[in-house]
Amino acid sequence: MDIPWWRDAVVYEIYVRSFADASGDGVGDLAGVREHLPYLAELGVDAIWLTPFYPSPMADGGYDVADYRGVDPLFGTLDDFESLVTDAHRLGLKVLVDVVPNHSSSEHPWFQAALRGEHRDRYIFRAEPNNWQSTFSGPAWTKLPDGQYYLHLFAPGQPDFNWRNPEIHREFLDILRFWLDRGVDGFRIDVAMGLYKAKGLPDIQDQSFKSVSPIWGQPEVHEVYRSWRKLLDGYPGERMAVGEVWTDSSEDLALYVRPDELQQSFNFAWLQAPWSSTAFKKVIDDTLAAVPFATWVLSNHDVVRHRTRYDTADPGTGLMRAKAALLTMLALPGSAYLYQGEELGLPEVKDLPPEARQDPVFIQSKGELVGRDGCRVPLPWSADGASYGFSPDGVAPWLPQPATFAALSAATQAGDPGSTLTFYRRALACRRELVGSLPYTLEWLDSPEGALFFTRGSLICALNCGTEPVRLPSHGGVLLPSGPLDGDLLPPDTAVWLRTSS
Ligand code: BGC
């Protein structure tokens, strides 16, 4: 069987507004991404995923789309996009773009028409709201001057589409075609378990991301992905889609990746697990048992960076654990999604001044919830300059960067054999060399308490989540450790790849 490119792909998430600013307005853009494609090729990833760059009033950093077939001037032009895709392909990188089907921007012409009383059945209007809350806090309904309410599961600037209206289906198939015709290799589907709401919009007790609730995971959504899959399969070159599915069950996750639906769905179980070999083993077993093609994620633009998550649990361990987790994740069968800046070991920026924060989570909760700006601080490319090379010199970036970013910049780390960036490059190069020869299964080896040992063909991966060093399993040579080994001992918070002895 031919292995599809995405099965083992390492995909690098680019939060476009925070990656690199070529235009000099303090906001990252497509030209900035294009300039740094060689960096990504050298890093050794297989694909990039671009967060929304479409025209948007930016009520939610672009996840409020006003025109699904364009580029916001803040990010460039359609020509910039096409040049980016051409260059990426030339460098052997696939390109995924974000599609946001659960809601549009309130500035979208369809919602503007709805406000005038035209075609309100494209959105969800009611005379009386139910008790649903916005994911960003506060009510999920906003009242219009004419007394009607509209539903927005996120910000008021993100009205939810009514997927019971066939016009929405036709429109999104057309939007997908638009980008497929421009050469994209796939889509990341925002809030993929949303779209349909239970008929009658009943009140709910629990708003959290449960597998099935009146808000999430309605069975009808799978028909949408069946039709999208047909469309993708009609294009040459293994076009694919990965769904953002927040759920508490791996069986539910599996529903989205049935053979006639999406190729992948994000598996957020590891990202939510504590630093524990037992917890990680369960996540791995549950995932591999449930889905045919696994994905692994440690960080993204919606969660606290994993270095800081681990550090908060046990101060001083963050970077060691982040590297050990990465090495373990890269040894697993399936595809890995990295988030920009993790290869530099960037921490969450916790002390952003309130007036700088822009996340609607912070704004809507009136500062009660800190929000996600801390993982979205613009990347440091060089050790000096007003924005550490993010913007042309003298330009202030859209979020302030801490002084600690100087030592973490890509230029500082590039030539340093002991840096996090060098470690990521080595790990990705080693994985690329091995991955084609490894079986898509793993076998557990006996391991001491607190540790996790497994093999895949000729590779052994050992991770020590405990507090004492453990003896390495019997092996035929060290391939790559995430930190210093102590002879034949694997120190705490460290992982290693080993060759099997046979
Ligand atoms: C995206 C978020 C966004 C939300 C609403 C998601 O899950 O990843 O960044 O705020 O959808 O579009």
Blueprint of the fold:
Elements (H helix, E strand, L loop, with lengths): L9 E5 L15 H6 L1 H7 L3 E4 L27 H13 L3 E6 L9 H7 L9 E2 L14 E3 L5 E3 L14 H16 L4 E4 L31 H13 L6 E4 L6 H6 L8 E2 L3 H4 L4 H14 L4 E3 L8 H8 L4 H14 L3 E5 L20 H5 L40 H4 L1 H5 L5 H16 L7 E3 L5 E6 L2 E6 L5 E2 L6 E4 L7 E2 L3 E6 L3
Parallel strand pairs: 1-2, 1-11, 2-3, 3-7, 7-8, 8-9, 10-11
Antiparallel strand pairs: 4-6, 5-6, 12-13, 13-14, 14-18, 15-17, 16-18
Helix pairs in contact: 5-6, 10-11, 11-15
Bound molecules: beta-D-glucopyranose (BGC).
In short:
The protein is an alpha/beta fold and 502 residues long. It folds into three domains: 5-102 and 192-350 and 406-429, TIM Barrel (Alpha-Beta Barrel), CATH 3.20.20; 351-402, no CATH class; 440-499, Sandwich (Immunoglobulin-like).
Q: Which key terms come to mind for this protein?
A:
3 domains; Immunoglobulin-like; binds beta-D-glucopyranose; globular; TIM Barrel; 502 residues; 5-stranded antiparallel beta sheet; alpha/beta; 8-stranded parallel beta sheet
Describe the protein's architecture and organization.
This protein folds into 3 domains: 5-102 and 192-350 and 406-429, Glycosidases (TIM Barrel, Alpha-Beta Barrel), CATH 3.20.20.80; 351-402, no CATH class; 440-499, Golgi alpha-mannosidase II (Immunoglobulin-like). Helices cover 27% and strands 14% of the residues. It contains 15 helices and 18 strands. The strands form 4 sheets. The chain has an 8-stranded parallel β-sheet with strand order 9-8-7-3-2-1-11-10. A hairpin with a 2-residue loop joins strand 13 and strand 14 (459-464). The longest helix has 16 residues, at 166-181. The two termini are 27 Å apart. The mean pLDDT is 97. Bound molecules: beta-D-glucopyranose (BGC).
